[in-house]
Amino acid sequence: MPHTLTLRRCDAPNPQCPPLTPHLPISPLPSALTLMTHVLFHLAFPVSNILETKAFYATGLGCQIGRENAASLILNLYGHQLVAHVTHEPLKPQRGIYPRHFGLVFTSEADWSKLLDRAERNQLCFYQQSKRRFTDTPLEHRTFFLEDPFYNLLEFKVYAYPEAIFGEREFAQIGDAD
């Protein structure tokens, strides 16, 4: 049976958006495995230099380069589309990994380790070294964070128990406490 979600209208609605429907039914999503074979993730993020973007993402991480121009670059990160857009606004370092970072959840520790080795070999900037979180619990996972030249933070992790990726709802821990 679908859940019901009541949407709240903001004070100044966007005229481009259709009116909200109260009590919109929420249907369950297809399983994660089904989605991974049919749907790709897309993320656009700010950079200030296309050459540095290529050095970090293509040479450093191993992304394949797609279309590019002077203002944008499309990258293939393990089958997902990243689009780097040049901004002329100043980019500033974050004060921590929250609330904004992006990355991948690996389903194979061997694949995760290969990327970790590549990042170390290419001397990419580690924002947080590899570590194990929630040891000896169903949420146990290995993780590391990189920082690109534009202060975007990337997390790469692999869970000891795959059901923790979307499940284990009886646990409240998400990320680091600090």
Care to describe what's here?
The chain has 178 residues and is α+β, with helices and mostly antiparallel strands. The chain has a domain at 39-87 and 94-163: 2,3-Dihydroxybiphenyl 1,2-Dioxygenase, domain 1. Helix content is 17%, strand content 32%. The relative contact order is 0.14. Mean pLDDT is 85; it is low at 1-15 and 17-30.
Coarse shape:
globular
CATH domain topology of the domain at 39-87 and 94-163: 2,3-Dihydroxybiphenyl 1,2-Dioxygenase, domain 1
State the end-to-end distance: 38 Å
Output mean pLDDT. Answer: 85
Summarize the structure.
With 178 residues, the chain is of the alpha+beta class.
Supply database-style keywords.
178 residues, alpha+beta, 2,3-Dihydroxybiphenyl 1,2-Dioxygenase, domain 1, four-stranded mixed sheet, 3 helices
Please give the structural blueprint.
Layout: E1 3-5, E2 24-26, H1 32-38, E3 42-47, H2 50-60, E4 64-68, E5 72-77, E6 80-86, E7 102-106, H3 109-121, E8 126-133, E9 141-147, E10 153-159
Parallel strand pairs: 3-6, 7-10
Antiparallel strand pairs: 1-2, 4-5, 5-6, 8-9, 9-10
